[in-house]
Each structure stands twice: as structure tokens, then as C-alpha cells.
Q: What sequence folds into this?
């Protein structure tokens, strides 16, 4: 049952070898961390990095099915569920639950995104029994007491009211609402000022019944725990969950409204610009070339083309970037920046010109080589803490990349050729985009619809 | 400044989110969507207890101090240089200069022209950034360990070798103005935060925003930046902190070869800023912004920092902040959000890491229909109860456990460790003071916490800011 994978990162370009080491007490030669796939006696699988030199355990887990499972017109159910799991569970009320968590310095948190709902647990090894028991209650027996639900609802509404002040939030919301009209992705995962008041306790309970199931559970455990103990704890926490989920089907989607420019008025000195179009799904063979290409265009923090042209050469913005975003049911290419109102049009033109240029001619050989060198060289920085390792291992499972992905990943980056990135540049960037702008009204050249 | 239920600001705040400015923060969204960012874990206490690697601390002949924090679990190194200069060291009228210079430090030297340092990091897979606060300016790189000599060489070169021209200074000033727009002008909550701090400090430059006042940022120029650089960027005014897969001896040899070759260019004057008079007035201010849909209250008290406090006082304030306003079990959250039902959120923070007298903050967001008077009465009641009756044994133990565990959790992250030591050493602290912090927290008594509430959370030491949609005069009178 133990499928071990050596967690090391070969750097082809500069020949260096980066280990994600784990055993401080052992000599360097033995210093490779192993990721094990373990299966509990009750049949629950998890990826484990056993590291006896540290006095703590970090566990991350996720269930597929996040805000996409919110009922129609009830956006925010997954998000409110996540916020309420530790507000009373089993025979413990909300106040006592928080007290027990804090008195042992346990860190427990839950988050809902569009595609999954996830949790993280951090505990000192000596408190592992209490920590895993509390987590079991939170996942399997949350109360959703009306008084707690109302408190969390008020907090959610407060955050939503606050978001109406933020041009960034408004630009994002408007972009998704337009691009995915009629699809669950159109709704903000946090819900809206209209949908959150309508959410009922039954909605929350139904969500947990549909989503909290063993067949869609992904778990990673890192720290001072062996496989046998981890197996027992997995059964204790997740063993009572139903075997199968009841997810509502979600349609695949492609972004709509491409070619449109939508302006939203807000009296702020700086306008926020979001530009996006169709991307490339994670399992598409073109994903890795797209990832490398994007690094050159706008992914690299301080040496991307967008950084050089928008920020360094013209001082138009403090932050400018682009990203490839593969979701479960759609894929996106996004770029965003913020600039003073009277330079909005100029900034948009510069970004669009860079996208066009990249689509037409692709990167230079030097840019491609540097990007590959950076992406392979920096991969190890994702694995230098227990917390980061646990996060990464759950993400790799959610993306169904396989336990050997960490070994293979830098090879996949190295294998990207100039022909690949040029092909993908056309596919990704030679396309119409949807633009949202939030700020003071400025004449924006209307191109397209 | 938003303090929601995670309460991450409730614990040991080193750099409050609103006080530290990063030169080049960029969103780096990548293909793998991020799982919720979890708190960093760490093993400083445990590894020390288990006879773990020793922290090395030495000073080169040119006055540069070096701290090495070994963590051999992974062959990665975090390299930071901390200059003992921040916005509180600026000349009046030149606000924002420390931060502006931080941006300009990426513009190249005679030996390494513009872009070479960043391009090198971009090629070797290194991460970099920099940030400025009122008391310090720091630059860092995260790299595979074999590149440590390379980045030390680059960083030593730009300590005194910076070359600036109007061609790269002026566009960067526009970048900083856009940063100002993004962080401050576009955010009503950041704007009132500036107003509260400015009103709190009657005499000390901590009242100036780190990013500067807009009309002064607009006039900063190359000569200002170079003069400031020559005054403060010298080995005898800096601390290098290196955390990761290294040990003291190898770093010492490297440091002598790189930083050790940099001559002192300035004598560093003692950092004597104008100090605060005894505060005597209860102050309130109201700021209206038409965008505000969720009003908030922010209060700052003038309190001792770890550097100015009597022994034990700063640690008592750490514990007090934990009990008063960290998370769902805190007094403020329980009273305002759960029991009295007047707020959607409430909490507190304490910034102990500061050279001069610092701030203790309390904040709350009223539920719709709840007046600031009601909200404030509830806050005052909570504070008065601690000042008059002290804290319970259970909450006291919980708070200390939590704070000490933070130090344990923090050591899992070499970058966090480097930041803790670097920040402490630039504001009058020492390696010993950082490592002994958990023991000092353990030694805090319930009486000391009660006394801290009574002495320091005196309203006459405070400014309370109300962020509203419209000024009261324009509001419909309903009561």
C-alpha cells in the first residue's frame, strides 16, 4: 500500500539539486523527504510526509464541490458552511468549541472556493487526540444553531458591504458575472447582499450531506506522525462520513462576453482593470506551455513583459500581472492592474498590445530559457515548511496529477519547446477578451460589443 | 486593516499589515489555485530544547551585524538585509522618502546595471522583495542555498553603489503614487487609519504615513533619494539575517568576503526622534467617505513598545491584547459580537516591535442600526471590567499558551524567523531578547495584565476614529 515517491527537484539548467529535506537530525545524504500514500484500516487514503524531527502535525484536506454546489439564488452556502463548522459541534457549544481549540493552541480553519471546500489543522503533536476529535465533530456533527448562523450571516453581510467600497472586488465580481452568466461560476463564492439573507439552516445541512463524503476527499498529513497512527486518526476524523457524495452536476463553461468592455462608475482616484478570456484546462497537454508562456508575459513578479512595459518603463501601475487559471469546469486567462483614472485607456492599450505581440511572435529564446530556469529553480520554495507541503500535496491531489508529479514536474517544464509556446500563444492570446473597468468615468475606446 | 475572525493580528504583531509597504508586491497567481493560506508553523522552542542548531550572531569590522538561523530541513536560504532607517527617520517635508528609496534600490549600480540583480534571481529561481516601515527598511531573497554567495555579493554592492538617473527615478515616483492610490486613496479604511495615527502622535514622526503624504511624495527627487541613501546606507547601520540551510561559520567567511569589503560611508547618529508629551486629551475624529457601506471604529492608544517598556510591561500588553481582542474567545468578540449583539466583528492588536512609543489598537464594526455611542460604550465597558476586576485564570492560561505556541509554530518557516529577528534587531532588540520572549511571556502575571489595562488603556491616551458614509450633520435625525 505504500507507494513512496522521493520528493526532490532536479534542476536541469544549472545542474543543481534541491531537496525538500525533512530530517534535520540525519546526514544530508539521507535527506530526501518521501511522500507516502497511505490507506487507513477503514479505507481512507491520504498522502503522508512523516517527519519525526518536528513537534507538530499539519493536515490539509479538501472535498471537491465548493460554491458550485450552492443552490440557485443561494450563493454563499458553501462559504457560510465553512465559517460555521467550528461554531459548535457534537455536544460542545460554539463558545466552548473555540475555547477548547485555543486552550491547546490548535489552529483549525475552513475555506470554500468555487470548486472545493477545504480545511486545515495545525497542532502540537502532544495535543493530537484533542485536535483530531474536535475536527471530527466539526466535520460530522456541526450544529448550525440559529443564533450562530445569524452571527455568521451578519459577518458575511458586513464583509459584502465592505466589498462595495473596493474597486478591485467590484471589477472581479462584474467580470465573473458577465463571463459566466447563467453558470454557478457567475456567483461570488461569498454570496451577495441578496442571496446571503435567503440562506437557511437546511441549505447548510444539505450542503454538508451532499459534499462531505469519502469518495471526493483528498488529505495530506505532514509532521511528527507515523503511518499507523495517521491511519487511525484518518478513520477517527473521516470514518463516519458517508461513502459517496451527491454532488449536483455542473456544466462545463466557456467565458462569455468576450470583446466587451464594461465600465462601472466608482468615485476613486485609481481605476481597476481586469482583462480575461478563455484559458487552458489543467489536464490539457497545452497547460504547461501556457504556464511557461504566461510567466514570460505577466507571471514573473519583476521581469515579465507586462511588468517592464506597464510599470518599469511607464510608471503606469504598481501592480500588473497575468495568470492562467484552470478551474474544474472552465479555464481562464486573466490580467489585471490599477492605474490613475486619466491613464486608464493608455494602460489598457499597453497591455492589449503586449498580449497581441506575444500572440503574434511569441517569446524570445532567451526569455523561454530564463522562464524555464526560474520555474524549475523556484519549485523547491513551495516546499520549505510543513504547512506549504501539506497545501501543495492537497492541490496536487485535487488536480489529479499523481503522487509522482513532484518528481516529474520540472521535467515537464523543461520539455516545453519554442514551438509549444508559440502554438499556445496563438491559442491563448490571439483571442477576444472581456474587460471590466471600475473607477471614475473616463472615455474608453469601445472596441467590439 | 481588517481583523476578521481568524484574529491573525491579535497575536504578536511584528509588522502590521498597514504599516509595512512592500516595494514590489505582485500577485503571483499560478495554475494551482491556492488553498487557504494557513498560519506558519515553527519549531524554534522545540529545536532549542532538543539541542537544535545554535543561532550565530557576530559583527564585522565595518560594523555590519550578522545573524544566522540554521534550519537544515531543506536546502533553501532566506537572505535579508535590514537597514536601521524608516519613515520616522525622514526630514520633515520629505515624507515617503525611505519608502521611495526602497523602490529605487532596484535601479542598479555601476558594477551591476539596472535589472541585472533581478534578472539573475529570475534566472536562478529566486524570490525577492523589500519593505519599509517607520523604523526599518528590509530587502530579501529566497534562493537555493548554493546561490547565497551570489546574492550577498549583489546586496553588498548596492549597499553603497547605487546609481540613479532621472530616467529611472521619475517613472518610479509615478509607480509609488499608484501604490499610494492603491493602498490609501482607494481605501477609506486605510485613510482613516492614517488620520487616527496622525492625530495620536502630537510630536513623534510615527504620525506620518510610511508611504508619505501625497503632496510630498509628488516632489521627491533623485537628489533627495541619494542624500538619504548616503546618510543611512552604510554597513554600520545594517543587520544581515540569514535563515536556512547554513551555519554560522560558513556565513561568517562569506560575509567577510562580500559585505566585509564595503567601507563605512557614514557615521550613524543616534536615532533620537522627538518624543511624545504625556497625552492628556480624549480625542475623536470622524471621516466621511461616500463609498462607505460598512461603518467602522478604530481606536489607537499610545503605549510602550518592547524597546521603551519597563521589564515585563510589553509582554503584559501582548497577553492583554490576546485576551482582549484575539479571536472568538476574546473579551471584545464575546461581548460585542456574541452577547450584546452590537457588532459584526471586534478585536485588538498591539505592535510591540517599535523603537519608540508604540500603539495598541481596538476596532469594531457596528451591526446595522447600532450607533457609535452604543458600540463605544460596549468597548469601554469591556476594557473597564479588565482594568477593575482583572482576567480569569482560564483566559489567562489560554492566552499564554497561544502566544508561546506561536513561537513554536513560527520556526517551521525560515522566512518568518528571519523577519522576527531582523525586525527586533533594528528596533533596539537583540537575539537574546527574541529567543527569551516565550519565557518572558510565561512570566507575566494576571496582575500585570490588569495593570496594563488600567495604566495604558486610559482613554486620555487614545484617539478614536469613526468611518462613516456621511458626516452627522447631513444625516437624518432619528433619535
A:
Amino acid at each position: 500500500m505504500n507507494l513512496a515517491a522521493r520528493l526532490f527537484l532536479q534542476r536541469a539548467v544549472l545542474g543543481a539539486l534541491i531537496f525538500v529535506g525533512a530530517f534535520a537530525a540525519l546526514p544530508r545524504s539521507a535527506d530526501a523527504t518521501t511522500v507516502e500514500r497511505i490507506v487507513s484500516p477503514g479505507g481512507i487514503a491520504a498522502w503522508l510526509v512523516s517527519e519525526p524531527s518536528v513537534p507538530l502535525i499539519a493536515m490539509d484536506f479538501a472535498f471537491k464541490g465548493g460554491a458550485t454546489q450552492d443552490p440557485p439564488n443561494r450563493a454563499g452556502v458553501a462559504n457560510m458552511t465553512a465559517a460555521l463548522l467550528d461554531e459548535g459541534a457534537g455536544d460542545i457549544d460554539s463558545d466552548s468549541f473555540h475555547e477548547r481549540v485555543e486552550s491547546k493552541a490548535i489552529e483549525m480553519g475552513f475555506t470554500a472556493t468555487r470548486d472545493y471546500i477545504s480545511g486545515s489543522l495545525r497542532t502540537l503533536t502532544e495535543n493530537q487526540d484533542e485536535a483530531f476529535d474536535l475536527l471530527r465533530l466539526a466535520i460530522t456533527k456541526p450544529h448550525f444553531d440559529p443564533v450562530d448562523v445569524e452571527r455568521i450571516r451578519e459577518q458575511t453581510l458586513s464583509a459584502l458591504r465592505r466589498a462595495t467600497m473596493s474597486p478591485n472586488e467590484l471589477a472581479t465580481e462584474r467580470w465573473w458575472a458577465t463571463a459566466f452568466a447563467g453558470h454557478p461560476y457567475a456567483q461570488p463564492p461569498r454570496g451577495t447582499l441578496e442571496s446571503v439573507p435567503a440562506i437557511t439552516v437546511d441549505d447548510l445541512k444539505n450542503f454538508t450531506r451532499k459534499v462531505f463524503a469519502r469518495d471526493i476527499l483528498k488529505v495530506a498529513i505532514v509532521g511528527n506522525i507515523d503511518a499507523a497512527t495517521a491511519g487511525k486518526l484518518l478513520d477517527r476524523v473521516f470514518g463516519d462520513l458517508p461513502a459517496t457524495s451527491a454532488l449536483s452536476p455542473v456544466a462545463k463553461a466557456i467565458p462569455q462576453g468576450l470583446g466587451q468592455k464594461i465600465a462601472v462608475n466608482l468615485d476613486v482616484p485609481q481605476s481597476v482593470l481586469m482583462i480575461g478570456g478563455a484559458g487552458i484546462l489543467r489536464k490539457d497537454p497545452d497547460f504547461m506551455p501556457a504556464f511557461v508562456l504566461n510567466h514570460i508575459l505577466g507571471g514573473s513578479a519583476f521581469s515579465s513583459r507586462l511588468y517592464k512595459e506597464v510599470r518599469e518603463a511607464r510608471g503606469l501601475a504598481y501592480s500588473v500581472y497575468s495568470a492562467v487559471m484552470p478551474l474544474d469546469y472552465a479555464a481562464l486567462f486573466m490580467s489585471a492592474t490599477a492605474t490613475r483614472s486619466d491613464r486608464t485607456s493608455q494602460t489598457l492599450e499597453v497591455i492589449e498590445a503586449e498580449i497581441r505581440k506575444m500572440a503574434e511572435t511569441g517569446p524570445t529564446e532567451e526569455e523561454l530559457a530564463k522562464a524555464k530556469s526560474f520555474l524549475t529553480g523556484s519549485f523547491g520554495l513551495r516546499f520549505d515548511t510543513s504547512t506549504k507541503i501539506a497545501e501543495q500535496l492537497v492541490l496536487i491531489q485535487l488536480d489529479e496529477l499523481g503522487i509522482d508529479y513532484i518528481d516529474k514536474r520540472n521535467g515537464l517544464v523543461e520539455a516545453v519547446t519554442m514551438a509549444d509556446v508559440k502554438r499556445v500563444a496563438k491559442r491563448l492570446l490571439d483571442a477576444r477578451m472581456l474587460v471590466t473597468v471600475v473607477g471614475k468615468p473616463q472615455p474608453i475606446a469601445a472596441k467590439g460589443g | 486593516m481588517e481583523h476578521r475572525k481568524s484574529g491573525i493580528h491579535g497575536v504578536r504583531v511584528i509588522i502590521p499589515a498597514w504599516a509595512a509597504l512592500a516595494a514590489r508586491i505582485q500577485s503571483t497567481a499560478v495554475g494551482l489555485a491556492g488553498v487557504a493560506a494557513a498560519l506558519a508553523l515553527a519549531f524554534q522552542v522545540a529545536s532549542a530544547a532538543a539541542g537544535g542548531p545554535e543561532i550565530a550572531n557576530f559583527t564585522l569590522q565595518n560594523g555590519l551585524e550578522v545573524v544566522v538561523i540554521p534550519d537544515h530541513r531543506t536546502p533553501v536560504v532566506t537572505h535579508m538585509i535590514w537597514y536601521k532607517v524608516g519613515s520616522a527617520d525622514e526630514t520633515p517635508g520629505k515624507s515617503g522618502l525611505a519608502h521611495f528609496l526602497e523602490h529605487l534600490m532596484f535601479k542598479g549600480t555601476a558594477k551591476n546595471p539596472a535589472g541585472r540583480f533581478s534578472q539573475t534571481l529570475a534566472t536562478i529561481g529566486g524570490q525577492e522583495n523589500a519593505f519599509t516601515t517607520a523604523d526599518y527598511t528590509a530587502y530579501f531573497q529566497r534562493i537555493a542555498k548554493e546561490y547565497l554567495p551570489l546574492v550577498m555579493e549583489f546586496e553588498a554592492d548596492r549597499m553603497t553603489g547605487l546609481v540613479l538617473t532621472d530616467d529611472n527615478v521619475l517613472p518610479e515616483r509615478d509607480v509609488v503614487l499608484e501604490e499610494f492610490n492603491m493602498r490609501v486613496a482607494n481605501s477609506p479604511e486605510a485613510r482613516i487609519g492614517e488620520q487616527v495615527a496622525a492625530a495620536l502622535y502630537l510630536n513623534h514622526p510615527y504620525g506620518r504615513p510610511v508611504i508619505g503624504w501625497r503632496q510630498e511624495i509628488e516632489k521627491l527627487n533623485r537628489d533627495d533619494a541619494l542624500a538619504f541613501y548616503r546618510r543611512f546606507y552604510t554597513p554600520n547601520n545594517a543587520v544581515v539575517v540569514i535563515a536556512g540551510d547554513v551555519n554560522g561559520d560558513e556565513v561568517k567567511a562569506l560575509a567577510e568576503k562580500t559585505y566585509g569589503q564595503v567601507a563605512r560611508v557614514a557615521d550613524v547618529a543616534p536615532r533620537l526622534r522627538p518624543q511624545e508629551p504625556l497625552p492628556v486629551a480624549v480625542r475623536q475624529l470622524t471621516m466621511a467617505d461616500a463609498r462607505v457601506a460598512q461603518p467602522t471604529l478604530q481606536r489607537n492608544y499610545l503605549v510602550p513598545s518592547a524597546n521603551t517598556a519597563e521589564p515585563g510591561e510589553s509582554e503584559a500588553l501582548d497577553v492583554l491584547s490576546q485576551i482582549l481582542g484575539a479571536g472568538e474567545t476574546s473579551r471584545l468578540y464575546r461581548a460585542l459580537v456574541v452577547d450584546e449583539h452590537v457588532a459584526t466583528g471586534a478585536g485588538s492588536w498591539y505592535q510591540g516591535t517599535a523603537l519608540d512609543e508604540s500603539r495598541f489598537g481596538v476596532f469594531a464594526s457596528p451591526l446595522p442600526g447600532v450607533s457609535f455611542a452604543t458600540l463605544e460604550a460596549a468597548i469601554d465597558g469591556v476594557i473597564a471590567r479588565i482594568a477593575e476586576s482583572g482576567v480569569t485564570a482560564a483566559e489567562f492560561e489560554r492566552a499564554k499558551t497561544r502566544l508561546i505556541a506561536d513561537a513554536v509554530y513560527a520556526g517551521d518557516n525560515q522566512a518568518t524567523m528571519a523577519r522576527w529577528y531582523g525586525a527586533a534587531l533594528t528596533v533596539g532588540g537583540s537575539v537574546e531578547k527574541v529567543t527569551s520572549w516565550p519565557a518572558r511571556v510565561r512570566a507575566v502575571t494576571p496582575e500585570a495584565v490588569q495593570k496594563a489595562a488600567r495604566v495604558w488603556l486610559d482613554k486620555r491616551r487614545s484617539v478614536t476614529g469613526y468611518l462613516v458614509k456621511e458626516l452627522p450633520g447631513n444625516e437624518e435625525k432619528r433619535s
